[in-house]
């Protein structure tokens, strides 16, 4: 690319609150993150919004598209029938090297399918995985869980690849020196679980490119003992949505239980910094979205209900993935892992 500035394509038409909330979050990101934004969508609507809010940022470009993939549509059919849909155009911008990443709060299945069709997979990765960052009981520490929805059915080698990709992200983006990987299971013992869990445990234990810490039970996910948790997308999606619900319930309980009246207002004012930190740790909107691991380009899938703050954080997440060269590092780590397994097999055959 001619410019060294990060350019992020934002699907302005995807999501329950599109396009206004998406545009608002993107404009804020352009102003605060020192990046360029390519707003993909209905050009007339986007221009009208900018004029209405008296905004004309120089680092925001409008890229016209036609149509959007709705939640009711089958992704592949809709993507082929609507080649100029916003998610297709956004992915093409990355494919053409006009953008470094895509952010979308639209149909997650369509985003994943468009990424696979337009960008392809990283060599050596069989299936993409959606990775979500969750807070833990340890202040300042998070855990990344993958897959949380891309693959309902998995093979052991898929989960092994998820562990490698999660390790890369934890190490280079979350600054964990030696990320500890856990396999989500119903017990700590290696023999526990179904056939997928038992066979995956064997693969992870033998892989020298990761620091495998054994099985992680459900209660271990948010304790902070592990840095990376791997599971199939069926279990992971249930886990993610349950964790999000916990955060929403706890925030609501805090609102209801804070004292009322003048004393309550004074107390709340004094506690405001603490309450803000609690919200940041528990509110899924603070994370913005999840990275689609395994595709050959940075793609962030945001919540369908995302509002401007969540979109801002999703764009920040994309920018961090670019700055830390996540795609390049996954490619390198995966090749290293394959090399070590080949060497190990060769030595075993010679003996």
Automatic annotation (TrEMBL):
This is Phosphate acyltransferase. Pfam families: FA_synthesis. Its EC number is 2.3.1.274. It is an enzyme of class 2 (transferase). The lineage of its organism: Bacteria, Bacillati, Cyanobacteriota, Cyanophyceae, Oscillatoriophycideae. GO terms for cellular component: cytoplasm. PANTHER family: FATTY ACID/PHOSPHOLIPID SYNTHESIS PROTEIN PLSX, PHOSPHATE ACYLTRANSFERASE. Keywords: Acyltransferase, Cytoplasm, Lipid biosynthesis, Lipid metabolism, Phospholipid biosynthesis, Phospholipid metabolism, Transferase. GO terms for biological process: fatty acid biosynthetic process; phospholipid biosynthetic process. InterPro entries: FA_synthesis, Phospholipid_synth_PlsX-like. It is found in: Cytoplasm. Pathway: Lipid metabolism; phospholipid metabolism. The gene is plsX. Belongs to the PlsX family. It catalyses: a fatty acyl-[ACP] + phosphate = an acyl phosphate + holo-[ACP]. The keyword Membrane does not apply. Homodimer. Probably interacts with PlsY. Catalyzes the reversible formation of acyl-phosphate (acyl-PO(4)) from acyl-[acyl-carrier-protein] (acyl-ACP). This enzyme utilizes acyl-ACP as fatty acyl donor, but not acyl-CoA. HAMAP family: PlsX.
